Amino acid sequence: MIADMCRIAAALKARRHTKTDLGASMDKLDTGALVGWRADDLGQRVVLHMQTMHRNGPEDRQMRERAILLDRNQAVQLAHYLFEVTGETKPQKRGALRSFFGT
Length: 103
Description:
- By secondary structure, this protein is an alpha+beta fold.
- The protein contains 3 helices and 3 strands.
- About 35% of the residues lie in helices and about 30% in strands.
- Strand 2 and strand 3 form a beta hairpin.
- It is elongated, with a radius of gyration of 18 Å.
């Protein structure tokens, strides 16, 4: 997985003259493989903690953690987007009878 991420990072750096939606240079893109995450519910906001693994050289690996504050609307938009790009469908709610009978 880290090797795949390194190939993606190299491809992105090769297109360094391309601008992102935010207008930042692709040279400043910090790439890493997602290895873990968790979310903390703060009521109207959610803190998304993401752990990423970065490779700076053949033997140099570094784990980083970022905390991203989202409002509920942003969290829902992110979830819908991830379902869309992966081609997956969101889980269906189980009815009371299915929950009761365990199916």
